[in-house]
Inverse folding.
């Protein structure tokens, strides 16, 4: 399973992630800020830590067709009540890590939480690497948009051409910011609403409307392959982050965002009627 993590803007600017990549001999610790995108390749081990005083919101999106249960994230926890090490006997763990039985019990059983864990007061955590992390993290909020329509909105597309590390997970991403009462056409696959609200319609290949509903911050929806989605922002505007299986800029621009338009724009009758 491969995934891409996105730090929700204006929620928290503090966070730390630690990762050990397949066949790597050292852990990499990175400082996170709002708008960061962090790919996590299949086989990588990671932990995520809120080192600030406010809420940290991270959206995990990924390609799960090859997961243990297709369509669901497969978590391989190392320790804790559902951890892999807890399934082995103390003898096996102590011999594998060349530690005492007491140390093996602590390694496998001392952590009682699952997924979300509150650390004890004064717990020390690894410090972020001082070396450049540009190769591992990309801030899509700070990037120049690929499409910017005045008084309508903008789209920023991210592919391996801009961020080579993203190519290792075989995915691409887009960030769309829509001004109030404007609309965008799209056919992305997984969409997370980060800010604002609006209305979404999804139409299938036979011209049947599959979805017509209101969306707001915190909502996530999926647009299947060959389906087309269109979104209209409410008065407060709308901002969403999407993940695509396309890897080329041309595919993203042409399939995920055909244009930002006003919802009161007038098309000629010839265009509206299809010729």
């Amino acid at each position: 399973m491969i995934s891409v993590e996105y730090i929700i803007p204006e929620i928290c600017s503090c966070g730390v992630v630690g990762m050990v990549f397949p066949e790597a001999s050292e852990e990499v610790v990175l400082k996170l800020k709002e708008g960061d995108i962090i790919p996590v390749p299949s086989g990588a081990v990671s932990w995520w830590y809120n080192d600030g005083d406010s809420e940290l919101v991270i959206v995990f999106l990924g390609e799960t067709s090859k997961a243990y249960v297709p369509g669901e994230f497969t978590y391989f926890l190392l320790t804790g009540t559902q951890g892999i090490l807890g399934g082995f006997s103390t003898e096996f763990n102590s011999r594998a890590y060349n530690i005492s039985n007491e140390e093996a019990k602590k390694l496998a059983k001392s952590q009682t939480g699952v997924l979300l864990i509150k650390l004890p007061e004064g717990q020390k955590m690894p410090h972020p690497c001082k070396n450049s992390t540009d190769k591992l993290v990309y801030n899509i909020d700070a990037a120049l948009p690929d499409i910017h329509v005045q008084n309508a909105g903008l789209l920023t597309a991210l592919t391996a051409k801009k961020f080579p590390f993203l190519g290792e997970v075989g995915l691409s991403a887009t960030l769309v910011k829509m001004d109030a009462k404007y609309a965008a056409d799209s056919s992305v696959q997984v969409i997370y609403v980060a800010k604002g609200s609006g209305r979404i319609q999804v139409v299938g290949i036979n011209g049947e409307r599959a979805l017509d509903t209101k969306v707001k911050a915190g909502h996530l929806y999926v647009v299947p392959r060959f389906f087309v989605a269109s979104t209209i922002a409410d008065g407060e505007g709308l901002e969403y982050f999407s993940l695509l299986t396309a890897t080329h800029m041309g595919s993203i621009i042409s399939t995920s965002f055909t244009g930002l338009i006003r919802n009161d724009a007038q098309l000629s009758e010839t265009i509206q009627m299809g010729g």
